[in-house]
Amino acid sequence: MATYTSVMRFIGPGLKENELPFIRTNPAPEYKYMNFEWVDRDVQITDARPQRGEFSLDSHGFAYRDDPEGATPAMLQLLRDNNAEQIKKVYYPHIEQLIKEETGASRVVIFDHTSRKRRPELGMYENPTGKEQPATMVHCDQSTKGALRRLEQNVEGDIDEILKKRVIMINIWRPLRGPVEDWPLATMDYRTCHPKTIYPTDLLNNTDEYRGQTVTFGYTDEQKWYYLDAQKTNEVILIKIWDSKDDVDAKREPYFFTVLATSLYS
């Protein structure tokens, strides 16, 4: 399998013992934006296409699947237009069915969706609201604390009763134009993620307004990273964000958009 070198951004050393990392948007005067520093690392990334069918959510934390029904010209145009109400009306039911077929779930609740596009006129690390670029740091969207908060905010019913059954949070990523030759999504085999590199990270606003908790990651040489070469619009990546079940190899999945070529990804 082909392997390439990319630069990834990880959480750096320097936090005090038992100090929780935080990222604060719109910081008020005299309030820090964050209490840690990012460090860039050269990382080897392997093309997963020759073994595409061998990856699974429960073992690796991610999987690749064909989804031609979600990539018809009409559906892709609907997604590119980014009309939230139409996406909820037309695309959400399709994704719900895809998730049920993949996982056997009896109930699927979609929280939201995001459209990202690489914008060369902006700096690599600029990410203004409404013009979200691919993420440039290794992360997972939800910690356990963040996932439980999401459940309380978005799922009707008694959360304690719901958690008596298995609950999984999954992201589904699809390119709206393809094949992808720039900024493909890279994912780590979760079995190579050392527990000491996992940092629950508070998301704050202005002063100390709590917005949730995500996960950032440190680096080790043991990590194994993969991307799907020339991903097409009819190919989706399923990424496990959180799992209420403990006895699985993959509880959550670190991921990152990486630069491997020069043509635009949108």
UniProtKB/TrEMBL annotation:
In terms of domain of life, where is this protein from?
A: Eukaryota
Cite the GO molecular-function annotations of the record.
oxidoreductase activity
InterPro entries, alphabetized: AsaB-like (IPR044053)
The family assignment reads: Belongs to the asaB hydroxylase/desaturase family.
What protein name applies here? Methyltransferase
What organism is the protein native to?
A: Polytolypa hystricis (strain UAMH7299)
